[in-house]
Amino acid sequence: MREEDLQLARLIVANSTSAEDEFDGEAAIVSPGNSPSPLRSRALDLSERRKQFRRTRSLNAPSPVQQFGPCGGIMKNTAMVMQIQDPASQRLTWYKPPLTVLVIKKVSDASVLAPFVQLVEWLLQEKNMVVWVESAVLEDKQLNDNNQFGAIRDKLVTFKDGRDDLTDRIDFIVCLGGDGTLLYASQLFQKSVPPVMAFHLGSLGFLTPFRFDNFQEQLTSVLDGHAALTLRSRLSCVMHHKSHKRSSKDNAAGAVPAATAADSMLVLNEVVIDRGPSPYLSNIDLFLDGKYITSVQGDGLIVSTPTGSTAYAVAAGASMIHPSVPAILVTPICPHSLSFRPIVVPAGVELKISVSPESRNTSWVSFDGRNRQELFHGDSLRVTTSRYPVPSICAQDQITDWFASLADGLHWNVRKRQKCLDELSDLTASGSEETFDELEQLKLYDV
């Protein structure tokens, strides 16, 4: 047998032992050339599988492998929530040039007015785009006093939150402000969300990686399709109300009637269940895919996305999770048990949360800090991962942006650096007879 045929055969045998013949390196399949027919067909099959499955993952399995050994395998499930690619391969592409852009600005902040006018004017005149803004923006007195804005005011298209449906009307979203602007954009689109580009003009700016200094170059690059994406998963929250009558005491306390309460909502950060104004501990039953897990006794419970892990959850003692990790984070709030630690569960499961029958009080639920409503005995909240993530545009890439936010926003692992041994040896040079113990007492070096 020829040497190239032997090399091809060895390559096929080596890769047959890996999962679905997947290639993780950069090695290429040897060209079959004039090799025997079985070798050629096997090599072509390997090449096709490499193109199809290269570093692709789904939420229902850790890899695209469906068979294990000669007999074992995974049953095919048509109820897959979403498919996760290798994060490094998540790049923005436009199927057609974007024409409509929604500009969301931070409210009641005079420092955002000038950038807002500058951006809107540039989008209208330089890019010939249709610009949408919320109708409340045009009611800003300071904005209306701006002569430059008066010349473009009539060219803007407006909408009202809660009344106008923006589905399939917006191609692109630009946020000017803090993290709240991105949360508001998520709330406006309860299904598919257009790509979001967020500029840091607020206080914390954990979710807003872009700086406004050179917005023209950055926006042009994004509109040309040159950008990385972070697909931020959202939680689908569905309230199930048991038919019961509210007492006059409940109504006086401001309870929201079940008929007017929002039954379904998508959240980007977290859904929070707490004890509200009651002096008693909350007693909340937690189920996972229909199986009883535990009762939460304490101030409440946080169910968050990986994006929300760096918000309320981390303040309650949870770990920080990269937004590309398919998971749901469950964090108790001040639990009445020292061993009750936060847990991470797979993104494909369903959580059911209800008030325990023996609970002394009801609970209250809020969704990304909004739409707060009461959870009565017999009511339940079901939480799953939504199939509609928020495509957040990266300033650089997923890894760089996230760790830069940790360092800038949370000062993660910021400390005074320890001196190296070379610096310590300089202290004892030139014939000094001082010992290291004496140097330590003098605090001449860090520990």
Sum up the structure in keywords:
447 residues, alpha+beta
Briefly summarize what is shown:
The chain has 447 residues and is α+β, with helices and mostly antiparallel strands. The protein has helices at residues 3-16, 37-53, 113-125, 141-144, 147-150, 179-188, 215-223, 248-252, 312-315, 398-410, 421-427, 436-441; strands at 56-58, 67-68, 72-73, 83-85, 100-105, 130-134, 157-159, 172-177, 196-200, 229-232, 235-240, 264-267, 270-274, 282-288, 291-298, 300-304, 327-333, 343-346, 351-355, 363-367, 370-375, 380-385, 390-393. It is globular and about 70 Å long.
Plain-language structure description:
With 447 residues, the protein is α+β, with helices and mostly antiparallel strands. The chain contains 12 helices and 23 strands. The chain has helices at residues 3-16, 37-53, 113-125, 141-144, 147-150, 179-188, 215-223, 248-252, 312-315, 398-410, 421-427, 436-441; strands spanning 56-58, 67-68, 72-73, 83-85, 100-105, 130-134, 157-159, 172-177, 196-200, 229-232, 235-240, 264-267, 270-274, 282-288, 291-298, 300-304, 327-333, 343-346, 351-355, 363-367, 370-375, 380-385, 390-393. Helix 1 (3-16) packs across helix 2. Residues 17-32, 52-62, 245-254 and 256-262 have low confidence and may be disordered.
β-strand percent reads 15-25%
Q: Label the structural class.
A: alpha+beta
Give the overall average pLDDT.
81
Biggest beta sheet summary: 6 strands, antiparallel
Low-confidence regions: 17-32, 52-62, 245-254, 256-262
**What is the number of helical segments per DSSP (H or I, 4+ residues)?**
12
Strands side by side in the biggest sheet: 12-11-22-19-14-15
